C-alpha cells in the first residue's frame, strides 16, 4: 500500500484477513498478520488481542495464550463483555487446568516480580488445577467486591516510570498504579 499508493495501513486494513484466519482457526496465519501489523506500526487493540487469545486457546498454543493475556493486561484496564467471555471460557477449560508447572522456584518468581515493577513475573504458567473465577467490581476506594480486600499499589514497569501514559511527561520519577 505504502509503496504503490503512498497510503499507510490502518487497523481496518488488516481486519478482513485477520478475522478470516481467526474464524477458520488458522492461528499461524493470524499471527503472521499481527506480526505484519506491528511491523507497519499498527497496534492491535482489545478485539484483535481477544481474537488471538481465542484462536490460541482453541488450537492449544499455551505460550501464545500467555503472551496475549499479558498484551491484553498491558493495553486494557478493563475489558468488554465479549472479551471477558473469551477469558472465562479459557480459564474454565480442561486444558487450562492441565497446563502449568507444579514445582517452581519461589525466589526466582519473587525476583522476577521485583524486576518487572511488581505484580507480574512473566515466567509462564505456574501451578496446576482449576482456576477460581469470579465476577467482581472494584469501587473508587479500591475495594474488591469479590474478596473484600483493598487493591494494593505496586511499582509500575520501567517504561511507565519514565513516561507518563496520561500526559506524556518524560522524567525519572517513581510512579504507582493500582494492580488489577
TrEMBL record:
GO terms for biological process: tRNA 5'-leader removal. Keywords: Repeat. GO terms for molecular function: ribonuclease P activity. Residues 3-97 form the PROP1-like PPR domain. The keyword Manganese does not apply. InterPro entries: PROP1-like_PPR_dom, TPR-like_helical_dom_sf. The keyword Repeat applies. PANTHER family: PROTEINACEOUS RNASE P 2 (PTHR13547:SF13), PTHR13547. This is PROP1-like PPR domain-containing protein. It comes from Cocos nucifera.
Amino acid at each position: 500500500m505504502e509503496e504503490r499508493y503512498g497510503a499507510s495501513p490502518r487497523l481496518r486494513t488488516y481486519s478482513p484477513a485477520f478475522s478470516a484466519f481467526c474464524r477458520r482457526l488458522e492461528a499461524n496465519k493470524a499471527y503472521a498478520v499481527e506480526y505484519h501489523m506491528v511491523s507497519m506500526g499498527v497496534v492491535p487493540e482489545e478485539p484483535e488481542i481477544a481474537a488471538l487469545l481465542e484462536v490460541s486457546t482453541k488450537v492449544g498454543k499455551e505460550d501464545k495464550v500467555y503472551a496475549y493475556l499479558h498484551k491484553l493486561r498491558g493495553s486494557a484496564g478493563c475489558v468488554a463483555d465479549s472479551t471477558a467471555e473469551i477469558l472465562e471460557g479459557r480459564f474454565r477449560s480442561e486444558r487450562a487446568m492441565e497446563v502449568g508447572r507444579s514445582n517452581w522456584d519461589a525466589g526466582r518468581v519473587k525476583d522476577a516480580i521485583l524486576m518487572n515493577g511488581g505484580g507480574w513475573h512473566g515466567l509462564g504458567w505456574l501451578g496446576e488445577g482449576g482456576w477460581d473465577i469470579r465476577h467482581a467490581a472494584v469501587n473508587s476506594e479500591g475495594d474488591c467486591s469479590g474478596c473484600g480486600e483493598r487493591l494494593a499499589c505496586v511499582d509500575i514497569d520501567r517504561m511507565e516510570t519514565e513516561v507518563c501514559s496520561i500526559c506524556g511527561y518524560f522524567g525519572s520519577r517513581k510512579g504507582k498504579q493500582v494492580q488489577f
